[in-house]
């Protein structure tokens, strides 16, 4: 320790004193306490604690003494649990102050904390150090210059943050709906090019379709989406983080096929590979279906689905493993019972194990198209076991996914409500 005198230091937490040697503070498990070892002046000390007594070499922290006592039990024994008769969120706030996280809690207490956060919709995030929309008035000096940039960022990223953001979100939703209607209408027989067109006629039709009303509407929609994506990229804080976000990748996948198809139409001309290019153009045009996912920016339900899949990827992998294992077992047995044994009747639908896998998957998921079904008594018994096993195997991981879905929904709903409060304040002003 580079400040203070004496072989030991005293920590006074809410009136309870703890004495430590200087060397212990260097590698202390609590980050706030270990920071005292590197303090060079009294000013540095006061940035860590609330007060300092030079004569006693005592550091005062105005925090909950009983909560710190339980935190010290974690330092000594490695187990961290909640203080009886103390709010879980208050104790979690004490943990964050001393440099601990929710993962340091015992498993039972972690579940209590998650349930408590879900009930009260309270979440501690590092994205808003000023306390969200309510902390706008506590900006540090010199941050006023980027206030308009922050407002632009929230206008494009948070649809409920302001009136302008809601108007922009509504216009974007209308463009998505219009583009989807045009995409669906373009597949009608009256809109499609006849199949018996020659290669040259198909090329001319593709080039002229850009000048048709549907092509004009499509170009306008693409122009809007492109301008929106460019503006969001310009006002983003971290450009690399912006490119890595899933929704931004989806925007890129939805926009680039249009420009690629236009370039291919312009440069292909009378090329011998025109027919192959025509197939590629149809595939690229169908990639516009990704525009539907753009609605996730404006609807909590779709955001909840994406966040749940992101957090429950282990459960999803476990679900797929269950299905694959059961499919391998039941497909082999069904192929053996229906076609592999030397019986009088053989079911040709089960001629191979890959063919039987289709029957297993639609049976385990209780879809049952009826295109394949066992005809032997052992095969029907196996089919009943397959259906029951599918219900059980699918129900086991879905419970964890459901709880994560509820928690993600509360989290996103709280975030939306927080920005709605700032919207209400804007209306009052």
TrEMBL record:
Subcellular location: Cell membrane; Cytoplasm
Annotated Pfam families: BTB_2, Ion_trans
Keywords, comma-separated and alphabetical: Cell membrane, Cytoplasm, Ion channel, Ion transport, Membrane, Potassium, Potassium channel, Potassium transport, Transmembrane, Transmembrane helix, Transport, Voltage-gated channel
GO MF annotations in UniProt: delayed rectifier potassium channel activity; potassium channel regulator activity
Entry membrane topology: Multi-pass membrane protein
Cited SMART domains: BTB (SM00225)
GO cellular component: cytoplasm; voltage-gated potassium channel complex
Domain of life: Eukaryota
UniProt key word Transmembrane: yes
Quaternary structure (record): Heterotetramer with KCNB1. Does not form homomultimers.
Family: Belongs to the potassium channel family. G (TC 1.A.1.2) subfamily. Kv6.3/KCNG3 sub-subfamily.
Name under which the protein is recorded: Voltage-gated potassium channel regulatory subunit KCNG3
Native organism: Atrichornis clamosus
């Amino acid at each position: 320790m580079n400040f203070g005198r004496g072989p030991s230091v005293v920590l006074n937490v809410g009136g309870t004193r703890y004495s430590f040697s200087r060397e212990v503070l260097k590698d202390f498990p609590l980050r706030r306490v270990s920071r005292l070892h590197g303090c060079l002046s009294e000013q540095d000390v006061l940035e860590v604690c609330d007060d300092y007594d030079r004569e006693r070499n005592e550091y005062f922290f105005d925090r909950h003494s009983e909560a710190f006592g339980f935190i010290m039990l974690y330092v000594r024994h490695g187990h961290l649990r909640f203080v009886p008769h103390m709010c879980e969120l208050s104790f979690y706030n004490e943990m964050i102050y001393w440099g601990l996280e929710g993962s340091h809690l015992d498993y039972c207490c972690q579940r209590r904390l998650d349930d408590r956060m879900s009930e009260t919709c309270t979440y501690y995030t590092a994205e808003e150090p000023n306390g969200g929309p309510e902390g706008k008035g506590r900006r540090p000096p010199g941050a006023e210059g980027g206030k308009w940039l922050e407002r632009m960022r929230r206008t494009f990223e948070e649809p409920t943050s302001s009136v302008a953001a809601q108007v922009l979100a509504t216009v974007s939703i209308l463009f998505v709906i219009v583009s989807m209607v045009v995409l669906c209408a373009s597949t009608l027989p009256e809109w499609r090019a006849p199949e018996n067109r020659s290669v040259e006629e198909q090329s001319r039709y593709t080039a002229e379709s850009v000048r048709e009303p549907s092509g004009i509407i499509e170009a306008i929609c693409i122009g809007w989406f492109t301008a929106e994506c460019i503006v969001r990229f310009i006002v983003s804080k971290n450009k690399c983080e912006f490119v890595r976000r899933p929704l931004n990748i989806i925007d890129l996948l939805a926009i680039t096929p249009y420009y690629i198809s236009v370039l291919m139409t312009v440069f292909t001309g009378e090329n011998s590979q025109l027919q192959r290019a025509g197939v590629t153009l149809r595939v690229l045009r169908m990639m516009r279906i990704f525009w539907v996912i753009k609605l996730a920016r404006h609807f909590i339900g779709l955001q909840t689905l994406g966040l749940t899949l992101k957090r429950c990827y282990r459960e999803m992998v476990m679900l797929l493993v269950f299905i694959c294992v059961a499919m391998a077992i039941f497909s082999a047995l069904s192929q053996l019972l229906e076609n592999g044994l030397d019986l009088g009747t053989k079911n040709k639908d089960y001629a191979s194990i890959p063919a039987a896998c289709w029957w297993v998957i639609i049976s385990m998921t209780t879809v049952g198209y009826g295109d394949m079904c066992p005809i032997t008594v052992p095969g029907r018994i196996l089919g009943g076991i397959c259906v029951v096993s599918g219900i059980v195997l699918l129900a086991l991981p879905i419970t964890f996914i459901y709880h994560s879905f509820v928690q993600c929904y509360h989290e996103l709903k709280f975030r939306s409500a927080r920005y709605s409060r700032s919207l209400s304040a804007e209306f009052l002003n």
